[in-house]
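[job 4471] stage=fold_predict status=RUNNING
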Amino acid sequence: MPADAAEEIRGTAHGTAPVPLSVLDLVTVGAGRTATDALRTSVDIARLAEHRGYHRYWVAEHHSMPGVASSSPAVILAHLAAHTDRIRLGSGGVMLPNHAPLVIAEQFGTLEAMAPGRVDLGLGRAPGTDGATAAALRRTDRLNEGADDFPQQLAELIRFLDDDFPDGHPYARIHAVPGPVQATSPGGVQSAHRPPVWLLGSSGFSARLAGTLGLPFAFAHHFSAQNTIPALDLYRESFRPSAVLDAPYALIGVSALATDDEKEARRQVLAAALNMVRLRTGRPGLVPTPEEAEAYAFSPMEEDFIRSWNANVVHGTADEVRAGLDDLQKRTGADELMLTANAHGGDVRLRSYELIADAYGLPTPA
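[job 4471] inference complete, writing structure tokens
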């Protein structure tokens, strides 16, 4: 990694934000909308985020979920790279056991060539889907093996990214292209730079691994809030300085939705929560409208789930969301907040990021 690797990882807070603010995009598809609509919204949000001083924009790998159109992060990131100039782009994350490490090294080497110096490679070990779909992705039903092999897969991927397999290794003569090998070839003028690697997690496994390897860590607070502080503590306790970082750096994903009216925020998060109810009970679908959610007859068990789920969604007016984010950052000590706005309509999501930027006095476009 280059000497300025830590500078690529550590963002800068703007306005009155306590830490850098970033965006996690699930490319959600609402009822009555298409994947094309969702991807157009992603471009709009990425442009807004770039203009308003959000630090990075990540997309997450999911499969077999009608309401989430982000099955191919590298493809989406290439599209976003063509529509932005400065904001960091990355995966939040690529589920490494679903893929051959060489393929990921090639994909993100290509992205690095498209958007030099602004690509992040965030990696997770979960499948990003149900077991049957994971088996179809991996062409095996030995799913635990993929997760158990994650440290070895990670090491292999980093070797491909750095093009530094030792002599005698079976892969020593194999190169991820685009990649560093082009800089060392006769007449080579390519940059040897490669994307920084992040580990993602929702429990302690990746927290400990990220700390041991001295890598930046991203925790999925937005769906595993009860584990946030224990995982961050474990990451910091396990951290060993590396060529990448001399001190821990942890961001957390946060569900946050700001609207012009508090009542509207409650309507929108209810619809998003109904979508989660259906997903968790094996009925994944498009994100329902607020009207559908208001008319839905929730069972007592579903109502309990909704209350628990929405307790960890920071929502309301812009001032309420700002206060909630400030409190969360203080409680967790997170070095960066990565906001994901889950709502039926793309216009609502776009407006949320704009309102939060205004609440923190982030830069406005010239």
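[job 4471] summary: The beta strands are 21-25, 56-59, 88-95, 119-124, 197-201, 217-219, 250-258, 314-316, 336-340.
[job 4471] exit 0
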